[in-house]
Amino acid sequence: MCKYFMIVVVAGVMLACVSSAWGVQIETEVVGDIGNAPDDTTYGAVGYLYYMGKKEVTAGQYCEFLNAVAGMDPYGLYNGNMWSLSTGCKILREGSSGNYTYSVADDWADRPVNFVSWGDAARFCNWLHNGQPMESLTGVVDHDRGVTEDGSYTLEGVTSEEDLMLIVRNTQATWVIPSENEWYKAAYYDKDIHGYWNYPTGTDTAPGYITGDGSGGLVYSPGSSPFTEGGTGGDSDPGNYATYDGSGSFDGIGSPYYRTKVGEHENSKSPYGTLDQGGNVLEWTEGKMPGFTSAHPERHATRGGMYDNGEVYLHASERVPGRAHEGVANVGFRVARIPAPCPPPITIETVPVGYPGNTGELSGPGVFGGVGPISDRICGSVPYFYWIGKYEITAGQYCVFLNAVAAHGDKHSLYNLNMWADPDGCKIKQEGNAVPYTYSVASGCENLPVNFVSWGDAARFCNWLHNGQICGEQDVSTTEEGAYSLSGKISASELLSVARNANWQWAIPSEDEWYKAAYHKGIGTGADYWEYPTESDVAPTAEAPPGGDLTNGSANYYDGFILRGPSERGAYKTKDISNDYVSDGAYGTFDQGGNVWEWNEAILLKCPSVMGRGMRGGSFSEPELALHASHRNGSDPTTENSDLGFRVSAPCLVSDLNGDGLVDMKDFAIFAKQWGAKKNP
């Protein structure tokens, strides 16, 4: 949150508004249940996911905004009533035009801002949209674009009632004044009952209020529990309370504050988790409604009730018209964030793997976590056609996944900070101090293999592919069902219990699928395998891409001298004199030897108390032995390291294409020629 530091005006009375390293931080709550029906009031239907401000914008946050842009204040963002009136939010302006500074009185920074017009709120949203620039406004529109005059709303200097009533949200808006439907849904809709409550505290019973106890103190009413702001124990919010005039004679919490600090009623949240959508101050929306006079037939709708009136205004049926150019004591605002559109789907290049029913070969022993032998196993026999990723999953592909399902809150820890911070990380960066997060890849690193991913992360990525790469929270529609039934499983024991579902569309390769694609010679169904995944029985050369070994190929592994870190997918594409690649496998995969270890579905047992998921192929930090077909490895499925990533596989449904009554390699050859690599889920 914003930090406030004391200045010596009157000791202990004023606080300067000084931005933290993150600037103004807006806590939000995700509002999902896309496509919900409207209430019988006709409001509340929203066909997209969005984020509603958890709390009303505070005097402290608005003070930071003023200090950033209002050194001259050509658009009247500051209202003198904020300071001069007893009901103001106690923001003080000092200095002269061009050098104005702003501060907020002690104990007022966390109370809702008031005396803000709809136009002021729109300019605050534009400032958030534009990245909170520290740029004083001049009143020259060409200068002020990129600060407050464009962004979520194209204002272009307008301040009059008539002009502000014409302003609409821009298509690419991010931070916004909530539409009336967005505001209504966040306040009254409950996704668990697929219906609406009458009050924004998740109930049809009018909230209680705070009133005087007759002796100068404050109490919750109904009841007689003492009220002290920030209190705990007996002073904590009993639930279903709001700040309004419940007695008809006691405004809010009375003088001098009238309004509680935002979020004070911590146990009176809406079903989506927002606070104070009932009471404290009315809040601007983008909605419009009839005004009071024929001269001004239309006003912006405010919602939610206020400190100086009764509970009727908290009810879902109530809306109050407000003048767009005017700020008053009982009106403030909260903001919403509209996320960027779902990123375009990624493409997974795959290669077909044929000869179903091929014979396997004995593989092992390897090591488990580098500490001891694990059992031998017959590997490589697969009774069906399938596709396998030509390359390891990249940082760029995984970043799209994160933006689709972890922007809304990363409850299953799909992002690891070491992706960015570790010298050998794949350079995916998480930005934002609170949801919504955004993810980006450092320039030039898009084709590095993703690393610092657990087996569970890889399984959730596969579920996301299975479900069509849709955007949303990490739930059954995105990451928790599909190829694997995860249902929130994150511990090692839970992930070891997960098996591939029968209807899988994308999956972590089984050990046999992985092994066959890496080592099988691809010339029949017999037990004919290479020792290394570069179509060779001799170890590939450890050298930088693209490599120069035209006989055995090249790979990124540790030769005892140079530890390079991960290299780009498929970087080893040196060709021999026949114009054929020499660093790929028989089926056309790259980097199944070296670069990063790759998860597979095997469950490996070292001893009765140590189990893990399989890993294959070695890495940039391992010697050439780890690339060998005999080397089985495994780790706790929650492990996330710089030398650990994955690739994916998919079913390949071949039919009798030549009409001979058989489904065999002749049909597969026709299929592969017609379709090539599978590139989309």
By helix and strand content, what is the structural category? alpha+beta
Number of separate helices:
12
Radius of gyration: 31 Å
* Sheet with the most strands: spatial strand order: 1-2-6-5
Residue share in helices? 10-25%
Strand content: 15-25%
What does the average pLDDT come to? Answer: 90
Which regions are unreliable across 5 or more consecutive residues at pLDDT < 50?
1-13, 677-681
> Biggest sheet, in brief?
4 strands, antiparallel
User: Whole-Å distance between the termini?
Assistant: 42 Å
Based on DSSP secondary structure assignment, what is the total number of beta strands?
A: 29
Q: Given the C-alpha coordinates, what overall shape results?
A: elongated
Describe this structure in words.
The chain is an alpha+beta fold and 681 residues long. Helices cover 14% and strands 17% of the residues. The strands form ten sheets. The chain has a four-stranded antiparallel β-sheet. Strands 3-4-16-7 form a four-stranded antiparallel β-sheet. A four-stranded mixed β-sheet has the order 14-13-12-15. Strand 5 and strand 6 (101-105) form a beta hairpin. The radius of gyration is 31 Å and the shape is elongated. It starts with a strand and ends in a 6-residue tail after the last helix.
